[in-house]
Structure formats: structure tokens, C-alpha cells
């Protein structure tokens, strides 16, 4: 089974102009713990997680003070990505070894979607149950 078969294709994304407030709002609305920041050609230029934002808050007075800052300032730039034809077990092990919670999936040099670790765990268990 490949990432193409399990990815979330209709996902919220952020742009380089998005703020921390934009990121928090989208994480809440769409219930994703992380979001991809894309350029104008839908190529990932960063990934920001709830954990990234929480770590910054611990060094500041509060979250409100950073609400209008560019989210890209707090994102992991040049994020790890995987091709849509990557086997789910390979992607899962890559995520575990790198400590990733979200993996952008690429197809034809564009963001095709994302997978979360739980998506891959679920897919591997279903694959074993339904050979």
C-alpha cells in the first residue's frame, strides 16, 4: 500500500504570508496538529506544528503577543517530504526516526496531501487484516 492510497488530499495549507493566528485557527477548525506552508506552486516550504508554537510561547510572555507574526518564522523550513508512491511502512519508519508528526506527500513536484502517523498505523493494521 502506498501513501497515495491513504493521504489526506483536501487539506488546509498556509502561505508565507500566513500568521500564527491563521495557523492556530486552521489547526482548530480542521483538527490537524500540524500544517504545511506552501509557495505559489504548491510546493512545501515549511511545516508548523502545535508543538512548534507551544515551544515559542514558553519563551514569550504569551501567545497573543505573537499572533500577528509570520508563521513561517516558527516553522521547520525545507521539510521532509515523501513521494506519493512511497510504501506506507517506509514512510512510517521515516517519520518515527525523524520525530515527524506530519509528512507532506508530493506528486509531480506539488503537494498532493499529507499523512499523519496515525493514518499510517491504521493503514498498516488494515492491510494485515485484509490481505
TrEMBL record:
Cross-referenced InterPro entries: CBS_dom, CBS_dom_sf, Diverse_CBS-Domain
Protein name (record): Paired CBS domain-containing protein
Presence of keyword Oxidoreductase: no
Domain of life of the source: Bacteria
SMART domains linked: CBS
SUPFAM superfamilies in UniProt: CBS-domain pair
Keywords, alphabetical: CBS domain
Start and end residues of each CBS domain: 6-64, 75-131
PANTHER family: CBS DOMAIN-CONTAINING PROTEIN (PTHR43080:SF2), CBS DOMAIN-CONTAINING PROTEIN CBSX3, MITOCHONDRIAL (PTHR43080)
